[in-house]
Amino acid sequence: MSPDSTPTLRPNYDVLAIRRDFPILAREVFGKPLVYLDTGASAQKPRQVIRAMTQVMEETYSNVHRGVHFLSQACTDQFEAARETVARFINAPEADEIVWTRGATEALNLVAATWGRANVGPGDRIVISTLEHHSNIVPWQLLRDETGAELAVIPVDDAGEVDLDAYAALLDDGRAKLVSVTHVSNSIGTVLPIGQMARMAHEKGALFMVDGCQAAPHMPVDVQELGVDFYCFSGHKTYGPTGIGALWGRKALLDAMPPYQGGGEMIAHVTFEKSTFKAAPHKFEAGTPAIVEAVGLGAALDYIEAVGRDAILAHETDVAEYARERLAAVPGVRIVGHARERGAIVSFTMDRAHPHDIGTIIDRAGVAVRAGHHCAFPVMERFDVGATARASFGLYNMKSEVDRLVEALDEVAEIFGR
Amino acid sequence: MNELRELYQEVILDHGRNPRNFRRIEDADGEAKGDNPLCGDRVHVFVKLNGAGGLGDVAFQGRGCAISTASASMMTELLKGRSEAEARRLFDVFHAVCTDEAFDPLDVPEEFGDEADRLQVMAGVRQFPMRVKCATLPWHTFAAALDGKATATTE
Ligand SMILES: Cc1ncc(COP(=O)(O)O)c(C=O)c1O
User: Fold this and answer.
1) Could you tell me the pLDDT band of residue A1, with boundaries at 50, 70 and 90?
2) What are phi and psi of A351, to 5 degrees?
3) Is the CA virtual torsion B58, B61, B66, B68 positive or negative?
4) In angstroms, what is the span from residue A105 Cα to ligand 1's centroid?
5) Contact present, A185 and A160 (Cβ < 8 Å)
6) What pLDDT is stored for residue A418 in this prediction?
7) Is any atom of ligand 1 closer than 6 Å to the C-beta of A114?
8) Pocket flag, ligand 1, residue A211 (CB < 6 Å)
9) Which of B4, B17, B39 sits opposite A356 (nearest CB)?
10) Are residues A188 and A64 in the same domain?
11) Does A124 lie in the same domain as A185?
12) Is A75 inside a domain boundary?
């Protein structure tokens, strides 16, 4: 969201009521009320999620897709209902196009290992961007090393926006088989023009995959409108539990892809000579899945939708833009990343203090930020910083917490000099 | 607040701002790179032996927080002129300073009395378990540089 297209905050966005849904936000750290500005790393959990997971374990828990008994059916129904919730959440045409994974990392590895091995060969090109999290770099490096394909990187400009001319050049000779980029940069907040980039890829015959980790929790996502081929995100960044995530892929692609791991759940028939596999998504889900976590993720997505995704976007944009403004006014603070379209992530450095020292000092004031490279070494290198401090916002954050952050930075200046 | 002040003592801030021996040694006898994958901090330690088999010069380069920079800087000062064995024992002392609640400078062997006193300024990291690695990284890297040299000399 650019500042000038900031939607006006709905007056009925009751952030205090929302905060009461998150038990952990009531706690103190070092005797100060917690200010949690690390939702980009992992989001806190509302009672609704905690309750849904407890409810499964207390009332309906059993293995899924296996038993003839009552509980197995009840639990399978809940598990599959959660899959439908994911489909609705990203407007996937069918719930059968949703594959459960452990998170975005596994989803990216799954596509590299199955679609990649079946479709990529020497001379082919995989295209990613400078802004990627390591989990959208390394699986493609492994694929490259295995297949002799080439891995090409779209550069970004000083503001942190992808260079679309360079991107077009990487597509031009038609060797690109797949483009895999993040929807929102986890390190500097850039929102990529996914729709446009996907169209450009398709025109040159490449498929398009999106790492939606930092978008799904924060803004409306419609995979059909975006016109992409694969989309994935992690449950724990979406106010849901760890150990669960989702991969969406177009049905025809999933159907044509070989399985991922072998085991129970994914087979139709097994003899020692040969096994036949179930149809997607089950052929990608070997073994007993993360049942309770899937239900928890479903509850988290329901929660997000109940708050309202436009409302969340408006609220978070408001808070994040306020943070940019206030931080920019702190002497010695440099904000890294000034894309016109940006999410609720503000990365910064301070002249005299290393991000690690900033993180330690403001932690004692109860303010939790991430300090480091954010699993995005190439971004740090591009902007010539070893690390940054990163404040990332969620639906429960408030401007008064930004004030606490800025106040806490005063202590940093006190120690390190202004 | 006290714990923060104890961590960020003036001596540490000074070494962090103006690191000593912050340079390469072109004809180093041993060198090693250390990094803290958690934060991306990197340190490159160089060791030059003197004729007597002691440490003639120790220097470092790199990019890191105040704690790791100060630790590396102080380390280079303390190690110069030491024998290898002394250097390793000093590392043990340093490790105890950073991690051992019960550490008492008076327990340190006489020969390291002054050094232990100087290292005592790093004791503040004990209250910050996440930062102990920042302080010890340069020393681990130094040990790796020595070990690398050791293998090189056996050839
Ligand atoms: C943009 C992005 N992609 C991928 C990941 C990896 O997610 P996970 O560790 O949940 O698989 C993250 C998490 O840090 C992220 O921010």
Assistant:
1) very low
2) -50, -50
3) negative
4) 6
5) yes
6) 77
7) no
8) yes
9) B39
10) yes
11) yes
12) yes
For the entire predicted model, the pTM comes to 0.92
Whether chain B has a CB inside 8 Å of the CB on A32: the answer is no
Q: How far is the CA of A209 from the centre of ligand 1 (A)?
A: 14
pLDDT tens string A111-152: 999 999 999 999 999 999 999 999 999 999 999 999 999 999
Q: How does pLDDT run along chain B (155 residues), one tens digit per residue?
A: 589 999 999 999 999 999 999 999 999 999 999 988 777 788 999 999 988 879 999 999 998 999 999 999 999 999 999 999 999 999 999 999 999 888 877 777 777 778 888 888 999 999 998 899 999 999 999 999 988 854 333 22
Beta pairing partners, A349: A334
Q: Are residues A264 and A315 in the same domain?
A: no
* Cβ neighbours of A355 in B, within 8 Å: 39, 65
Query: Rounded to a whole number, what is the distance in Å from the CA of A350 to chain B's nearest CA?
Result: 12
Q: How far apart are CA A130 and CA A161, in angstroms?
A: 10
Which residues constitute the domain of residue A235? 52-305
Q: Is A185 in the pocket of ligand 1 (CB under 6 A)?
A: no
Domain end point (choices A267, A285, A305): A305
**Domain co-membership, A339 together with A240:** no
Split into its structural domains, chain A has a count of 2
On whether both A78 and A208 belong to a single domain, the answer is yes
CATH of the domain at B48: 3.90.1010.10
Cα(A103) to centroid(ligand 1), Å: 8
Structural domain contains residue A18: no
Residues A407, A409, A413, A416, Cα dihedral to 10°: 150
Whether the predicted pLDDT of A174 surpasses 90? yes
pLDDT given for residue A11 in this prediction: 59
B95/chain A closest Cα distance in angstroms: 21
End-to-end CA distance of chain A: 32
Q: Does the CB atom of residue A392 touch ligand 1 within 6 A?
A: no
A313 and A218 belong to one structural domain: no
- The residue written with tokens 């010539």 in the block is A384
- Is residue A232 within 8 A of residue A108, CB to CB? The reply is yes
Contact pairs from chain A to chain B, CB under 8 Å = 53
Q: Judge: B130–A360 Cβ closer than 8 Å, yes or no.
A: yes
ipTM of the complex: 0.88
A372 at the B interface (CB within 8 A)? yes
Which has more confidence, A187 or A7? A187
Tokens of A166: 């360079």
Residue A299 to residues A82, A87, A223, Cα–Cα distance (Å):
8, 13, 21
Closest CA to A38 of A394, A401, A318, A399: A394
Note down the domain range covering B27: 2-145
Structural domains in chain B (count): 1
Domain boundary among A305, A321, A354: A305
Shared-domain flag, residues A283 and A231: yes
From the list A360, A387, A416, which residue is nearest B40 (CB)? A387
Q: Does a structural domain hold residue A46?
A: no
C-alpha B155 – ligand 1 centre gap (Å): 46
Residues of A in contact with B5 (CB under 8 A): 415
CA distance A317 to A299: 24
> A188 CB less than 6 Å from ligand 1?
no
